[in-house]
Amino acid sequence: QQATTANGEPTSYALAKRIDNITFTPDSWPEALQADLWLPERADPAPVVMLVHGGGWYRRDRSDMDSIAEKLVEAGFAAFNVSYRFAPTHTFPAQLDDLMQAKRWLHQHSEAYQLESDRLSAWGYSAGAQLVALMASVNSSVELKPGQRPIRHQDQPKVIAVVAGGIPSDLRRYPQSPLVNDFLGGTGSELPAVYEQASPMAQISADDAAVFLYHGEKDFLV
C-alpha cells in the first residue's frame, strides 16, 4: 500500500512494468542499440529520465544504472536506461548521435507508454555524464560549435535537467589520455576542434538545461 502526502500524492511509487531490450535505433543504424524502460505505477503521464552508463566510452553496460532507475521509479519518474556504441570502433560523435536517437524514440512513443517527453531529464556517470551534458547543451543549436558537423534535431524533445556524476567536462584537459584519444580519434594537438566540440564546458549557452554535478572524493582522475 502506498502512503500519500497531504495533497494525495504518493510518497513512493511502485514499478508498474519494466520492458527490457527495446531496440531504439532504426534498421539503417550502424549498430542496433537497446534500452530498458522502467515505468512507475501512476495514472498520469510520467516525466522521463534517460540514464547513460560510464566506462571510459569503451566498456561496461547499462545495468550499472539499474539501482538509479529503481530509485527514480520510486520517485514517480520513468527511466529509459540506454546503451551506446563504443570506442575505438566508433568515435565521437557516434555516441552523441545514439543518445539523440534514443531521445527521438522517446518522443515518438511517449503516448503509447504514457510518458511526458517534454519533461525529459538525463542522468549519466563518468563517460555517460559527458554525453548527457553535451546532449543537453546542443538542444537548441543545429550543429556543434565550432560548426563542423551538423546534429539533427527534428522530433527532438528538449532536455530540461541533467545530473552528471564524475563528469570529464572539458576534454581539452586530457590531450594525451589514451581513453580520450580513442574516443575522439586522435590527440588534442591533432584534433583541437573535435576536442572542443566534445567538451560540454565549451558548449554552454544561456538556454541550457539545469545541471547538478557530483564527484567522488577518491576520484583523483576527474
Write the layout of secondary structure elements.
Blueprint: E1 15-23, E2 34-40, E3 46-52, H1 66-74, E4 78-82, H2 94-108, E5 115-125, H3 127-137, E6 143-144, E7 149-150, E8 159-165, H4 178-184, H5 192-197, E9 210-214
Parallel strand pairs: 3-4, 3-5, 5-8, 8-9
Antiparallel strand pairs: 1-2, 2-4, 6-7
Helix pairs in contact: 2-3
Calculate the mean pLDDT score and round it: 90
- Please give the share of residues in helix: 10-25%
Read across the widest sheet, the strand sequence of neighbours is: 1-2-4-3-5-8-9
Distance between the termini: 43 Å
Largest sheet: 7 strands, mixed
The radius of gyration over CA amounts to 17 Å
Strand-pairing-aware structural class? alpha/beta
Query: Uncertain segments of ≥5 residues (pLDDT<50)?
Result: 140-152
Strand content: 15-25%
Overall shape: globular
Total beta strands: 9
* Tally of helical runs: 5
One letter per element, helices H and strands E, the order comes to EEEHEHEHEEEHHE
Concise synopsis of the structure shown:
The chain is built from 5 helices and 9 strands; from the N terminus they run βββαβαβαβββααβ.
Could you please describe the fold and organization of this structure?
The chain starts with 14 loop residues before the first strand and ends in an 8-residue tail after the last strand. Helices cover 22% and strands 25% of the residues. Helix 2 (94-108) crosses helix 3 (127-137). The longest helix is centred in the middle third of the chain and has 15 residues, at 94-108. It is built from five helices and nine strands, in the order E-E-E-H-E-H-E-H-E-E-E-H-H-E. With 222 residues, the chain is of the alpha/beta class. It has helices at 66-74, 94-108, 127-137, 178-184, 192-197; strands at residues 15-23, 34-40, 46-52, 78-82, 115-125, 143-144, 149-150, 159-165, 210-214. Strand 6 (143-144) and strand 7 form a beta hairpin. The strands form two sheets. Strands 1-2-4-3-5-8-9 form a seven-stranded mixed β-sheet, with helices on both faces. Strands 6-7 form a two-stranded antiparallel sheet.
